[in-house]
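Notes to self after the call with IL:
- keep both proteins in one doc
- input above output, always
- annotate only the second one for now

Protein 1:
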Amino acid sequence: MDWKNNYYQLTGSKRALKLTQLTGGVVILPRFNNQFLLLEHLRVDGQVHYEVPRGFTELNEKFTLAAHRELNEELNLRPTKLTFLGEVMPDSGLIESHIRCYLADLGSLKGLVVQRSEQITGYQLFSLSELLMLVRNNQIIDGFTLSTVLKYLAIKDED
């Protein structure tokens, strides 16, 4: 089996599948005035999920530039500061990928417009304790969002 598009290549046999992400990806945790911005994103299961902005890197695009671009595309915002939080892999047993997580400090929400063409229906701001309550109550189930929140918690005292 062999299949490929601009972002992924799928190879496999009767015993194993391998999905290779051909470009990198970025996941961004936006922060404004000690609150965290989560998207309300309509997904394939028909439900609206709380998620952080994320996306693929373009061919030969640096990860930091991709993070700036994705924030601009999804929210029409630009960060005042971008902090690298670490890397994640969505499924190390199946998917070869390079995904970098960032904390994006926002100086303002002026001009914020969500990218409705990508099924983003809105956004909300949450304090850190509210964000963790959403995790505890299974109101955040997206793996990229969960990973990025955990990466943030691991460095927050150094921030």
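Protein 2 (the one to annotate):
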Amino acid sequence: MAGLDKRVGSYEEALSGLTDGMTVLAGGFGLCGIPENLIAEIRRLGARDLTVVSNNCGVDGFGLGVLLEDRQIRKMIASYVGENALFEQQLLNGELEVELTPQGTLAEKLRAGGAGIPAFYTATGYGTPVAEGKEVREFSGRKYILEEAITGDFAIVKGWKADHFGNVIYRHTAQNFNPLAAAAGRITVVEVEEIVEPGELDPTQIHTPGIYVDRVIQGRFEKRIEKRTVSA
């Protein structure tokens, strides 16, 4: 059983093997459920020319935004420019290659990649610039475009709890893109708030089975709030 233990003791070990030019899949939505410490470690390692796949690119100075500051991202595949002014600036200046993808399509491209499905047809984006250069077919009188699945060299994921074997539970909306990214990475690294003993997780509550996970690390999280709303 010891050979199944996925725990690692440092962030350097967690991202061992990450090199320039790789594709990194990052869970999270805005600042909710982002693997903030793994992102910080990528910055520390200084890997460059990365292709990053995530719903958006964090905010200025936090999350994936810190990788933009150091010009570590060559291409961003995302559904939303978001609240990151530097992301918008680099996009408009042509400094950053950006592939904007409808949010549901992005989720399905990751899900398909994790399931071993190379491509799928979707009506979303037909008749728009999203469809340019893509195969079109008609099913039951409706036009669909062919979208290719996404996989990555690394997937960096934020979970709530995990056991030694890499079984992961996410908490509420912090689940978002995390299980999709986890399944589509060649090497999947999960940072969690708590690592529990084997058998403590209810099998029916596990969102990402350990078969998809290569490394697990317990971290401390700032959990910034992107936009705070209060009532009188």
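Annotation: The mean pLDDT is 95. The first helix runs from residue 11 to 14.
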